[in-house]
Design a protein that fits this description.
Vanillyl_alc_oxidase_C-sub2; flavoprotein; alpha+beta; 16 helices; about 20% strand; Uridine Diphospho-n-acetylenolpyruvylglucosamine Reductase, domain 3; 7-stranded antiparallel β-sheet; Uridine Diphospho-n-acetylenolpyruvylglucosamine Reductase, domain 2; FAD-bd_PCMH_sub1; Alpha-Beta Plaits; binds flavin-adenine dinucleotide
């Protein structure tokens, strides 16, 4: 028997899926960039069953690849091509364990879909703010393991800021658990923080305690056309001052991204007819019904119009109109796909450098991109932008993108490095960004990550080949 066959033979048959059609649903990543092979998908029903699986895999040195909703953008949940790695999904561990209104917290199984956590909080008239375009299918275990960002981070922070405690099955089978609503707990290292963003390389997250907030009692959403890219971030600062920091989302959408979308989906309607190269979707919310948010946003809007920062804009007057604005934002990636796909750069720079990055990066693409088209959009309120390059209209996309990305991507990443930014703002490293980490990453950080991996997972069972690579970085 091979080592993985030994593991499978010792597990209860009800948690082992051998059906190739089902397994194949998990062996290609969301972007269809990576395809691996796996002999089985394990679907435990409890933390105890996860423990048994992990112990057996460590005993027999069989690699285990955790998969959540498989919406990740870096191939982190895709097994390699050896056909020896087992997949583990927590889809059957999807219970809301407790909503604790007194402590503004919720404790959940890691297999819960993000949208289900939103619903559970709403039923108690509370709110969990993590919000992503993939929320109907991504799992909180995946969100935690990628330290997901999303559209509300400008106000509520990223996943790291929303997790109070975790339950994790470590590679040796021990269960590290601090599922507690405590806001303050300084008893030594915050070990659960180490697991956030670890992409399954240090253990399996089986449960989480998360922060809840009061829901919005008033909310204003506006779609704005702005004059110049240099107006972008001062506009955020202004909006924050006018609304008393009530801004929850500040999303940039380039005119080019919108044009791509409307060219491929003519049924969608433009919220603003005035032509512009730059648009902003801004949302502000308050849990206080007495704040006067409407008046604050209107005053901000008038100030922006009179200062010629805002060229045109529309404030949503109904929930339907608000949804329409968000619908446009969420469909931007689809617009790229329908136009032949793109080479993606998910980067971050200081908020104060955002406009400069977009300008300089666009110049680079125009200079070296041989007619490439650009689609730039994203969570600029957090200094994070998706800077994506498309083939010229009518060009053979895949071949063109391969050729051009080899020339243009290094220029873009060099620019990000010069601005002291990050080549991976919110999607993680997975297997996709490991080569970039070799070039732009900090060798000491990589060395320490390798050491930590070595201590916790000496047999290299947990998601090998992702995040830390396969070898400890040599500092000599
Ligand atoms: C339309 C769309 C919009 C998106 N928008 C955003 C966005 O705004 N912000 C953002 O940050 N991301 C975004 N993403 C990317 C993606 O949704 C996130 O990275 C998400 O957090 C991944 O969750 P998942 O459950 O799909 O994880 P998967 O893709 O299944 O896995 C991701 C990683 O986590 C590991 N993992 C999964 N579950 C566990 C577990 N229980 N224990 C240990 N490791 C685990 C996997 O091994 C893998 O390394 C978007 C994706 C799509 C398709």
């Amino acid at each position: 028997m091979t080592p993985y066959e030994q593991v499978l033979a010792e597990l209860p048959a009800e948690i082992v899926v051998n059906d190739k059609d089902i397994i194949n649903g998990y062996t290609t990543d969301f972007r269809k960039k990576y395809t691996g092979e796996s002999p089985a998908l394990l679907r435990p029903r409890s933390t105890e069953e996860v423990t048994s699986i992990v112990k057996l895999c460590t005993l027999h040195s069989v690699a285990l690849v955790p998969v959540g909703g498989n919406t990740g953008y870096c191939g982190g949940a895709t097994p390699d091509v050896s056909g020896q790695q087992l997949l583990i999904s927590l889809q059957r561990m999807n219970k809301i364990r407790e909503v604790d209104a007194d402590n503004l917290s919720i404790t959940v199984d890691a297999g819960c879909i993000l949208a289900e956590i939103h619903e559970a909080a709403e039923q108690e008239n509370l709110m969990f703010p993590l919000s992503l375009g993939s929320q109907q299918s991504c799992q909180i275990g995946g969100n935690i393991s990628t330290n997901a960002g999303g559209v509300s981070a400008v106000r509520y922070g990223i996943t790291r800021d929303l997790v109070l405690g975790l339950e994790v099955v470590l590679p040796d089978g021990q269960v590290l658990s601090n599922l507690s609503p405590l806001r303050k707990d300084n008893r030594g290292y915050a070990l659960h923080q180490l697991l956030i963003g670890a992409e399954g390389s240090l253990g399996i997250v089986t449960g989480a305690s998360l922060r809840l907030f009061l829901p919005a009692a008033s909310r204003v959403t506006a779609f704005l056309a702005i004059n110049e890219i240099s107006d972008l971030m001062p506009l955020l600062a202004k909006a924050q001052r006018y609304t008393g920091e009530a801004v929850t989302s500040f999303e940039y959408i380039s005119g080019a991204s919108l044009d791509l979308l409307f060219a491929s989906k003519p049924e969608l309607r433009r919220p603003i007819q005035t032509p512009s190269e730059h648009f902003v979707l801004i949302e502000a919310a308050s849990s206080s019904p007495v704040l006067g948010l409407d008046q604050a946003i209107e005053a901000f809007f008038e100030d922006g119009m009179s200062g010629e920062t805002i060229v045109d804009g529309v404030i949503a007057t109904s929930e339907q109109q608000r949804q329409d604005f968000w619908n446009l934002r969420e469909h931007i990636p689809e617009g790229e796909v329908l136009n032949g796909g793109s080479v993606k750069h998910d980067v971050s720079v200081r908020i104060s450098d955002m406009a400069r990055f977009i300008e300089l990066g666009s110049d680079l693409v125009h200079r070296y991109g041989q007619g490439a088209r650009l689609s730039v959009y994203g969570h600029v309120g957090d200094g994070n932008v998706h800077f994506n390059v498309l083939a010229p209209e009518g060009a053979e996309s895949p071949a063109y993108l391969d050729e051009v990305s080899a020339k243009v991507s290094p220029c873009i990443y060099d620019l990000v490095a010069k601005l002291d930014g990050s080549f991976s703002a919110e999607y993680g490293l997975g297997q996709d960004k490991l080569p970039l980490d070799q070039i732009y990453g900090d060798p000491l950080k990589r060395h320490l990550m390798g050491k930590i991996k070595d201590v916790l997972d000496p047999n290299k069972v947990m998601n090998p080949g992702k995040v830390v690579g396969s070898q400890i970085c040599d500092l000599s």
